[in-house]
Every structure is written in structure tokens, then in C-alpha cells.
Specification:
Shape: globular
Bound molecules: calcium ion
Number of strands: 8
Number of helices: 2
Keywords: Signal
Protein name: Putative secreted protein
CATH architecture: Sandwich
Radius of gyration: 21 Å
Largest sheet: 5 strands, antiparallel
CATH topology: Gamma-B Crystallin, domain 1
CATH class: Mainly Beta
Structural class: alpha+beta
Helix content: 10-25%
Number of domains: 1
Length: about 140
């Protein structure tokens, strides 16, 4: 093996090592975004989804859904989802709490992993109290 071949092999090894190490050291992606859609199928595994309308937007698939796998101290602002959530699906393995005020203040609603809440009055007379009330969201326990 001449000098040039050794250098080429070393460069290839460095490239390969870099390719293997980078993904392993990267933290799980934490993200929050808003999209349109309806149903549980649009909520990725590991995420919690807040739907703007009842029944997970079943009858209004062009309405908004906030999708997140991290704490959100203010559902308003750029997300524009403050006091708008009418149903929720927790597709994560974390217990999540929804708060009626920003920065996790107020008496929260607890949503367990796999649980769905629909705040429509016609399915549960008491649930209307929760409709269009939530302003922040926190992952509180569990494993991701
Ligand atoms: Ca709403």
C-alpha cells in the first residue's frame, strides 16, 4: 500500500466513523408544530396532539392540530392554540398535564399515555368546562 492509498483509507475510516457516531450522540428531536388534520393517525408515536375541534377534528379536518413531544409553556404565540383545544390524544409513553394558564399554572387536567379526551358537551355534560381552556402543556412522568 503506498502513501496515497493509506491516506485514502484513513479518510474513508474517518468518514465512516463520523457517520456512525453522529446519530448515536444526537439527542431525541424535541419539537412542536401546528398542522391541519384529524384523527389519531396524524399523531406520531411519542407525541401529544391537541385538536382545535371536538372528536379529534373528525368533522373539520382542515382545522388545526398542535403536535408536540416537549413541554409548551405558551400554547399561544406562534402556535396560536391558546384557549382553543377541544380534544386531545396522548400518543406518548409520558403522563401529560394540560394547564389553564401559561407557564404550567392552575389546576391541570392529567392525560395518561394512550388516553384521549374529547371536550364536547354532547358526550359528557361536565366536559364542556374544559373546552377552549388550555394554555400550557407539560410532560410529567413516564418513559419516552
Ligand atoms: Ca376549540
Amino acid at each position: 500500500m503506498n502513501g496515497s492509498a493509506v491516506l485514502t483509507a484513513a479518510a474513508g475510516l474517518l468518514a465512516l466513523t463520523g457517520g456512525l457516531v453522529a446519530p448515536a450522540s444526537a439527542a431525541p428531536l424535541a419539537e412542536t408544530y401546528v398542522r391541519q388534520g384529524s384523527g389519531r393517525e396524524i399523531c406520531p408515536s411519542g407525541y401529544v396532539c391537541l385538536y382545535e375541534h371536538f372528536h379529534l377534528n373528525r368533522d373539520t379536518p382542515d382545522w388545526k392540530v398542535l403536535v408536540t413531544n416537549q413541554d409548551v409553556a405558551n400554547l399561544g404565540g406562534t402556535y396560536n392554540m391558546n384557549d382553543r383545544t377541544s380534544s386531545v390524544y396522548n400518543n406518548s409513553s409520558y403522563t401529560v398535564r394540560l394547564y389553564p394558564n401559561y407557564n404550567y399554572w392552575g389546576v391541570p387536567l392529567t392525560v395518561f399515555p394512550g388516553e384521549t379526551f374529547d371536550f364536547t358537551n354532547d358526550e359528557n355534560q361536565e366536559s364542556g368546562w374544559y373546552d377552549d381552556k388550555y394554555s400550557s402543556l407539560k410532560f410529567v412522568s413516564g418513559t419516552r
